[in-house]
Amino acid sequence: MAGHFERVRQADEDRDRLVCRDCGFVAYENPKIVVGSIVAVPDGAGGEGVLLCRRAIEPRRGFWTLPAGYMEMGETVEEGARREAWEEARARIRTEGVLAVYSVSRIGQVQVMFRARLEEPGFEAGPESLEVRAFAWEAIPWDELAFPTVRWALKAWREGAGHPGPAVLNPPEDLRGTRPLPGPVLAGGAG
């Protein structure tokens, strides 16, 4: 965008906006949408594990996350979740409904998480992952999860026994998604 932008509070507005001094254009700053999935993977013994990816990129490189990322223009939330599963875990998935919608106001994100299953066998690390594994519930590396929303989504999946039900929202202890994880996290990171 060309022009000279400044933060201005216009009449009838409750917040400052970026407004072009030359033409009056308002550049609205809106949250980014993150889409992802809890992918259930058969464990061979009649049970299920969940697919996690060890991040190869910042923020939180080396920590475990769900296959998830920013939605792209021109795609639906489901298409975005399927694309992210392919990009991060080389997994072809079938979504089975929305698991959760999280607000992460401190970094301007809305996260839409789906329940999903592998559409075809197999997965491996994509370019944004160091490794990809299916974890049994008791083997999930809880202390090595990248973001609070990963923990929230895993718990929501477990509480729903992986079956479709109404989508959950932020937990009561963090209704606005303002509590970051301890330690260094780069600005603009996911969840």
Protein architecture, described:
By secondary structure, this protein is mainly beta. Helices cover 13% and strands 33% of the residues. The strands form 2 sheets. Strands 4, 5, 6, 7, 8, 9 and 10 form a 7-stranded mixed sheet that branches. It has a 3-stranded antiparallel sheet with strand order 1-2-3, with no helix packed on it. It is elongated, with a radius of gyration of 18 Å. The two termini are 28 Å apart.
* 3D shape: elongated
Radius of gyration over C-alpha positions, nearest whole angstrom:
18 Å
Structural class: mainly beta
User: Please, what is the oligomeric state?
Assistant: single chain
What keyword list fits this structure?
191 residues, three-stranded antiparallel β-sheet, 13% helix, elongated
Write the layout of secondary structure elements.
Layout: E1 5-8, E2 17-20, E3 26-27, E4 32-42, E5 48-55, E6 64-65, E7 68-70, H1 77-89, E8 93-104, E9 109-118, E10 129-135, H2 148-159
Task: Describe, in short, the structure shown.
By secondary structure, the chain is mainly beta. Helices cover 13% and strands 33% of the residues.
